[in-house]
Amino acid sequence: MKYIVILGDGMSDEPMDVLGGRTPLEAASIPTMDALASMGELGMVQNVPAGMSPGSDVANLSVMGYDPKESYSGRSPLEALSLNIDMEPDDIVFRVNVVTLTDEEPYAEKTIIDHSAGEISTADAHILMKSIQEAFNNEEFQFYPGTSYRHIMIWKKGRQVSLEPPHDHLTQVIGDYLPKESVLRDFMERSYDILNNHPLNAERAAQGKNKANSLWYWGAGTKPSLDNFQAKTGLKGAMVSAVDLLKGIAVGSGMEVCHVEGATGSIDTNWEGKAQAAIDALLKDGCDYVYVHVEAPDEMAHQGLTEEKILSIEYLDSRIVAPIKQAMEDAGEEFRMLILPDHPNPIRYRTHTGDPVPYVLYDSTRQRKAVAHYNEKEAAASGNFEPNGHRLLARLIQK
User: Which terminus has fewer CB within 10 Å in the chain: N or C?
Assistant: First the structure.
């Protein structure tokens, strides 16, 4: 038996007037996921425990079978694992976005336009981060370039700080959301002076792209410790994802990380490459379990793009779910597949909420016959509800 998790990050949403009272999941054409819902189990699951922030870190830990209340030590340390960054127990690790702020006002009066600087390419971001490293790296602070807009800073023997995610405050004046810690605020203000007039940003502006003109700190934490996934489940696992967070969780739990050329974490990702990486892990590389994470629905929701969010869900169905299902069937391989989001990301808010999300659990050996559609409404009406997301893994692998 092979076990497959396909996670559409942030694809759950609310009914929208512009969609005639439907959610993007309801509006999307997803024949394969609908077929699996008709032959499998529909339900709702609570991935974000009460009182915890509804981040992809917390929610994906739940889906992977780790209780966030016991295993979570912060988002950034998980991302740092994927970059092979050495951490000491007393280091504080920060996620550092390169963001787009308005130009004219004093720093605290600027407005945050884009948390991802137009989903800046990794190549462009690395050029900018080199300037940041040259200006700021010393024995106490070290910056590390990551993927696209997502980067890391280590504060040696640092202090825990309360920080705000930039995607929670799009279009807002930033003053009330800046760090209270003066050294971090100083880094952010100085980064604007370095980045806003950087030749690369001048070129980006001339091309009509958003400047990546400031650093933004969030997601601080300490060195993580996760139980080994194979020791816990008896399954050899692999991770397919474009983002450092999920790769870091995989590294920390001893799973293999599948590197897919052209995987971007957005709607232009290498969909077929990610599907093939999952198929190869299961059918060629001896893995029992594969976790396919797709960031695109979440990114489209953060940007408030309704049609693009729907399209990303349709791509998930046709370019990820369908080919993986077909490959398992062609190989004569029995499999169980779990499809779900980690958390909602309603376009109305353009940020995450901690509400339950719909799942479909399909077993190729135990098919029911019904007419169902994979969406929030029908999943809620099913009456199936798992209040502790980390327990859903045991149901997937029947333990």
Answer: C
Out of 175, 204, 221, pick the residue that ends a domain: 221
End residue of a domain, out of 169, 187, 221 = 221
d(CA 257, CA 264): 15
Domain total of the chain: 2
Tens of pLDDT along the chain (399 residues) come to 999 999 999 999 999 999 999 999 999 999 999 999 999 999 999 999 999 999 999 999 999 999 999 998 888 999 999 898 999 999 999 999 999 999 999 999 999 999 999 999 999 999 999 999 999 999 999 999 999 999 999 999 999 899 999 999 999 999 999 999 999 999 999 999 999 999 999 999 999 999 999 999 999 999 888 999 999 999 999 999 999 999 999 999 999 999 999 999 899 999 999 999 999 999 999 999 999 999 999 999 999 999 999 999 999 999 999 999 999 999 999 999 999 999 999 999 999 999 999 999 999 999 888 999 999 999 999 999 999 999 999 999 986
Of 124, 121, 102, residue with least CA distance to 111: 102
Please indicate, yes or no, whether the overall pTM of this predicted structure exceeds 0.90. no
Residue 68's CATH number: 3.40.720.10
Both tokens assigned to 258: 């599948």
Beta bridge partners of 393: none
Rg, C-alpha atoms of the chain: 21
Name the one residue in this structure whose structure tokens are 């709607």. Answer: 267
Asked if residue 305 and residue 210 are part of one domain, the reply reads no
